[in-house]
Amino acid sequence: MRCNSRRMKWVAIALAVSASCAVLPVQAQEKPKPTPERGEALATKLCANCHVLPGGNPAAVPAGIPTFRAIANKPGQSGDHIAQVLMLPHAPMPDLQVTRDEILDILAYLESIRTDQSVQPIAPPADIAPQPTPRKS
After folding, report:
1. How far apart, in whole angstroms, are the C-alpha atoms of residue 88 and residue 122?
2. pLDDT of 63
3. Does CATH number 2.30.30 belong to domain 29-135?
4. Which of 17, 77, 125, 128 could form a disulfide with 100 if both were Cys (CB 3.0 to 4.6 A apart)?
5. What is the pTM of this model?
């Protein structure tokens, strides 16, 4: 059999292209832990028009809507309940379209402003616990 350098060149190119297009295994990437700082930034952006945040002006929001500190200190308050309200809001609350990670950040912020130590801490809901994100490599 005769060696055809032109054919060998095309075979080498085809192998290189197919190797570069091969599906690589997906690796899990750890997501950062929820932080009160990100939660506060989200609350300022998404919630401060209706809920008074610590240091906010009560006159600038509608009457009768609980403050963030009141939500954080409400007896029986749970991360599950807050997550449910954020995912399936009730009227007059708008649909905020928040992600799981954003909910966890908001919960971390609420926990950071909780002042009533007799109230149970706001634990992250089990059904939206942070999960590693698949990453292509």
Report:
1. 19
2. 87
3. no
4. 128
5. 0.70
